[in-house]
Write a structure and sequence with these properties.
The chain is an alpha/beta fold and 350 residues long. It has 15 helices and 17 strands. The strands form five sheets. The protein has a five-stranded parallel sheet, with helices on one face. A five-stranded mixed sheet has the order 15-14-13-16-17. A hairpin with a 2-residue loop joins strand 5 and strand 6. Helix 6 runs antiparallel to helix 7. The two termini are 26 Å apart.
Length: 350
């Protein structure tokens, strides 16, 4: 996985081709209640209405043939037992764009993988009755063009393009495919996993934590409303004041001055990397001045774990939770000599 160094949003669109948004190399990138309530959403018996950032769509019946254009929305569909007819490729060269934590949900199916620019004709050829554009970053013009093929479900107007929380996402998708009850069950199960971890680690509550990256010579931090930042918040952490301001800008990440990394000097520093090794990060001079480093409070998330954090989905979060708990506990036990396995393996340990 390449670090999400760039968010190159191609906002112009030729008649039949949508410019693809490359989201910080697969690392850029999600936890809160849905904005829609059943009473406000149902306008007629069996009919579902969805208000979203570009307007409103109406589904006369649950969708069955779904194209997943959001970079992570395939996970919500698969968790609900709906195999998309087309999946937008993000990063990682995974079969059908589905990562290991979700592969079993394909049941051997091989959805069409949509790579590069998204052709409206190619989407139309899949004959969808719903296109999910939540977390796709498409523009309103692109939305209008795709709406000629099928209703396009976008994130709620209260969320940025890549900022819809995982629980709201799966419940919204669940309603669109007629599986609201199952969606609520899935959300409850994952929330319980999170609650169990918080109960085991009450000392985490209120301590600061940030998710940072170092890629191509640039060091940066993910915003609190980004998938990775939100994950840490759900575990009870807060963020540092400088990083908290990122949420006000609407950006999901922010590059930092190489001369001043103080913004990420939190009680817990989680490095997100596209690789399992981090030689460039190991050699980053200013990192060694951070108290998070000298006190052994760094955790390294590379490869599969970083991808799962970046997805932050109903299917990837259980994997993240089961993997990171031990790492974070080791980093925050108050003893700098306690090895943090991932940091030791990556060469980051003090």
């Amino acid at each position: 996985m390449n670090n999400r160094r760039s968010e190159r949003n191609v906002t112009t669109m030729h008649q039949s081709v949508i410019g693809r948004r490359q989201v910080l190399g697969g690392l850029a990138a999600s936890l809160f209640m849905p904005a829609l309530t059943p009473s406000s959403a149902i306008a007629a018996e069996g009919e579902q209405r969805f208000s979203h950032v570009f307007g409103e769509i109406v589904l006369p019946r649950p969708a069955e043939r779904v194209v997943s254009l959001g970079y992570t929305t395939q996970d919500s569909l698969l968790a609900l037992g709906v195999i998309p007819v087309g999946i937008r490729d993000w990063f990682g060269d995974q079969p059908s764009g589905v990562w290991p934590w979700a592969q079993a949900h394909l049941n051997g199916a091989e959805p069409i993988l949509i790579k590069g620019n998204v052709s409206i004709e190619a989407v139309a050829a899949l004959k969808p009755d719903l296109i999910i554009g939540i977390g796709s970053g498409i523009s309103e013009t692109e939305y209008a063009a795709l709406s000629r093929v099928a209703p396009v479900l976008m994130q709620g107007p209260e969320y940025p393009a890549y900022g819809m929380p995982w629980d709201d996402l799966v419940q919204t998708v669940g309603r669109a495919v007629g599986k609201s009850e199952r969606a609520s069950e899935l959300v409850s199960e994952t929330r319980q996993q999170i609650a169990d971890i918080r109960q085991r680690h009450p000392d985490w509550n209120g301590r600061t934590a940030v998710a940072a990256y170092h890629y191509g010579g640039e060091t940066g931090v993910f915003a609190p409303e980004d998938t990775r930042g939100r994950f840490l918040t759900e575990l009870g952490f807060t963020t540092t004041p400088p990083v908290a301001k990122l949420g006000e800008s609407g950006s999901f990440y922010q590059a930092l001055s190489p001369e001043d990394l103080s913004a990420i000097d939190a009680d817990l520093l989680v490095w997100i990397s596209s690789d399992d090794t981090a030689s460039d990060l190991v050699d980053l001079p200013m990192r060694r001045l951070l108290s998070a480093h000298s006190q052994g409070r760094e955790v390294f998330a590379g490869g599969l774990l970083a991808a799962a954090l970046s997805f932050g989905s109903i299917l990837s979060l259980p994997f993240v939770l089961s993997t990171l708990e031990v790492e974070i506990a080791a980093a925050l036990d108050g003893d700098p000599r306690t090895p943090v396995p991932s940091a030791v393996k990556a060469g980051l340990a003090p």
